[in-house]
Design a protein that fits this description.
The complex is a heterodimer. Chain A is mostly beta strands. Chain A has strands at residues 5-7, 10-13, 19-24, 31-37, 43-50, 53-56, 65-68, 75-79, 88-95, 106-107, 111-115. The model of chain A has no long low-confidence stretch (mean pLDDT 91). Classes of the chains: A mainly beta, B mainly beta.
Chain lengths: 116, 111
């Protein structure tokens, strides 16, 4: 079974540019989460989708961040325009809905974003 | 709010040495506690967990005991291997399904 995949693995952009990160959850997982780790700090929650609906977006830092999950499959996280403080590693995770192990989130490898 | 504090790294050890990574937490109620591991180039994986006081989580030779009296969940392993080199994250989950993570501790094991 394929795990959670994220693309790209690395992205280097200049301040003011736009970047779109993609996450493909494990097939059949209704729950999809985005997290961010700024260098050397905690992993922070950004938002949670259940299928295509945003369940909780309380962690989104500001309106420069837009997350979508069209059709309840893969998700994208767009940063527009990017600022220096957006640099970090963006993790995606998924979990089954009402599954036996609903408390286990399966994480992707992350996308390392560097804003210059 | 909830918070997790874990020891700063990197922790550098020789193969077969003993490992302890300290983790303490602040939370209301009775959270579940977790250790995640991130190997190079991979995603976070759940290493072990404990859901109530005095529970011991264990996996792959790693252990951690939920100590409510000291609000701690230290990660231990008696003999580390080079393949244990990774970043280890302590986390808790209280009333919310969203985990609160520590800053991560990098472990480097030399042959």
């Amino acid at each position: 079974e394929a795990g959670v995949t994220q693309f790209p693995s690395h992205s280097v952009i200049e301040k003011g540019q736009t970047v779109t990160l993609r996450c493909d959850p494990i097939s059949g997982h209704d729950n999809l989460y985005w997290y961010r780790r700024v260098m050397g700090k905690e992993i922070k929650f950004l938002l949670h989708f259940v299928k295509e609906s945003k369940q909780d977006e309380s962690g989104m830092p500001n309106n420069r961040f837009l997350a979508e999950r069209t059709g309840g499959t893969y998700s994208t996280l767009k940063v527009q325009p990017a600022e220096l403080e957006d640099s970090g590693v963006y993790f995606c995770a998924s979990s089954p809905y009402r599954g036996r192990n609903t408390d286990t989130q399966y994480f992707g490898p992350g996308t390392r974003l560097t804003v210059l | 709010g909830d918070s997790v504090t874990q020891m700063e790294g990197p922790v550098t050890l020789s193969e077969e040495a003993c490992l302890t990574i300290n983790c303490t937490y602040t939370a209301t109620g009775y959270p579940s506690l977790f250790w995640y591991v991130q190997y190079p180039g991979e995603g976070l994986q759940l290493l072990l967990k404990a859901t109530k006081a005095d529970d011991k989580g264990s996996n792959k030779g790693f252990e951690a005991t939920y100590r409510k009296e000291t609000t701690s969940f230290h990660l231990e392993k008696g003999s580390v291997q080079v393949s244990d080199s990774a970043v280890y994250f302590c986390a808790l989950r209280g009333g919310s399904y969203i985990p609160t993570f520590g800053r991560g501790t990098s472990l480097i094991v030399h042959p």
